[in-house]
Write a structure and sequence with these properties.
- This protein is of the alpha+beta class.
- Among the domains are: 10-104, Glycogen Phosphorylase B (Rossmann fold), CATH 3.40.50.2000; 131-205, 2-Layer Sandwich (Dna Ligase, domain 1); 335-419, ATP-grasp fold, B domain (D-amino Acid Aminotransferase, Chain A, domain 1, 2-Layer Sandwich).
- It has helices at residues 22-31, 62-75, 86-99, 106-113, 115-125, 141-146, 171-185, 188-193, 253-270, 314-322, 356-360, 398-411; strands at 10-14, 35-40, 54-56, 80-82, 132-136, 152-156, 166-168, 200-205, 210-219, 222-231, 244-247, 275-284, 287-294, 307-308, 312-313, 337-342, 348-354, 365-370, 377-378, 389-394, 413-417.
- Strands 3-2-1-4 form a four-stranded parallel β-sheet.
- The protein is globular.
- The chain starts with 9 loop residues before the first strand and ends with a strand.
Length: 419
């Protein structure tokens, strides 16, 4: 008589209600034969009837959430805890430490989340990163503006997706940007996130040059770069809304190697050791400058542009690596690929999204997805934190892929009610 089937590994997915990633991670777990537990900041519909599959957590209280996860694991053992954003990266590090699972040091995850700590750590380690200073919200921006070197960039210390990031070229612009960020801190959902963060404004030098993004995995402190994305649209301000990502990068081999080395040096400086990372760098005349380094994977639906081996998703690679499975041979599928995050052109109520069929007919376009909800308010950057949707493309060359994304976007038409 054959023995009982081995139990499926159980993984906790930390999925705040604001994430786009829930379905992709759950689907990845299903494909890999993993039992997934959804850890969210809101109670799930089936929480009472399926307690082994859901866990309600206060993700803003990292230590308490980690203790709750450890208690859950006493009854339903976990083999991995997977974060999906900067906040849950801290929770995952704390919980994994309690459970004896491979993890990032909690202080490293905190430093990656808080931009002032990131800057201080990188500067101390000699990693090229912008010069900076931190101003409390109580500071007088008129006084601070007088002694500032321009151009500069002001930003909150902990928000992602370019939210609240504003360039200033003059003292008047500096003061206006400071007041705008202070008002952002007053929003209830931002104030809640800021409870454990330093409530200050980071002021840093503006670094000219092309921007790139790096997607990677850490295992035992060793970085494996999965993709380097070019961002062909200039990100010069006054706001820094990201639009197009295209991989492979069109930078020269030596530049790509320097980008990889700078990213690895930044991860080592912070002490990050396990799991996904997402980095943002500027390529200046002196080489790459590290702008951001997050202890999580790429945001939004952008991960769908990446496929590995025979069709594995980025989420599958993250889960496999967390469970110690072999990733040998799982390289990014050959061929250029790109994604466009459809920007919100103005504030208002989204009433209609047209031209989707015409956009999907552009050669090279794989999919067009509208993620914004009809009838709901749209808030553009720098106060907003979302997009209208995502366009995905593949082509023979990076230039061709970029052109397909731009043409598809040109064919879309949105009706936004204002006033």
């Amino acid at each position: 008589m054959s023995g009982a089937a081995p139990a499926r590994p159980r993984v906790l997915l930390l999925l705040p209600t604001t994430t786009y990633r829930a379905s992709d991670f759950i689907h990845a777990g299903s494909r890999l034969g993993i039992a997934t537990v959804v850890g969210s900041d809101r109670k799930q519909a089936l929480a009472d009837v399926a307690p082994a599959h859901t866990l309600t957590l206060d993700l803003g209280r990292a230590e308490e959430a980690a203790a709750q996860i450890a208690g859950f694991a006493e009854r339903w053992p976990l083999q991995a805890v997977i974060p999906t954003d900067d906040q849950t990266a801290v929770v995952a590090a704390l919980a994994s430490a309690r459970l004896g699972l491979p993890h990032n040091p909690p202080e490293a995850a905190r430093a990656a989340r808080h931009k002032d700590r990131l800057r201080a750590t990188l500067c101390a380690a000699g990693v090229r990163t912008p010069r900076y200073r931190l101003l409390p919200l109580e500071a007088d921006p008129i006084v601070e503006a007088d002694g500032q070197t321009y151009p500069c960039v002001l930003k909150p210390t902990f928000l992602a997706a370019s939210r609240g990031v504003i360039r200033a070229d003059t003292p008047r612009e500096f003061t206006a940007a400071f007041h705008r960020i202070a008002a952002l801190f007053a929003l209830p959902e931002v104030a809640e996130k800021a409870a454990e963060a330093y409530r200050g404004v980071l002021v840093e030098e503006f670094v000219p040059g092309a921007e790139v993004a790096v997607e990677g995995l850490l295992a035992g402190g060793r970085l494996r770069v999965l993709a380097i994305f070019d961002k062909p649209d200039p990100l010069d301000g006054p706001f820094f809304e990201e639009t197009i990502y295209v991989t492979p990068s069109r930078h020269e081999v030596a530049t790509r190697e320097a980008i990889t080395e700078a990213t690895g040096a930044a991860a080592r400086a912070l002490g990050l050791r396990e799991g996904p990372i997402h980095a943002e760098l500027r390529v200046g005349t002196a080489g790459p400058w590290v702008i951001e380094l997050a202890a999580r994977s790429i945001g939004g639906l952008c991960s769908r542009v990446l496929r590995f081996g025979t069709g594995r998703s980025l989420e599958e690679l993250i889960l496999m690596q967390a469970l110690g499975r072999d990733l040998e041979g799982l390289e990014r599928e050959p061929g250029p690929a790109g994604v466009m995050m459809i920007p919100i052109p103005r504030a208002g109520i989204l009433r209609e999204a047209g031209g989707l069929d015409r956009a999907r007919q552009v050669p090279g376009i794989v999919e067009v997805t509208i993620s914004a909800a009809m009838g709901k308010p749209l808030v553009p950057l720098p106060e907003g934190s979302s997009y209208l949707g995502f366009i995905f493309a593949r082509g023979e060359t990076p230039d061709e892929t970029e052109a397909a994304l731009r043409e598809a976007h040109r064919r879309l038409a949105f009706v936004i009610e204002t006033g």
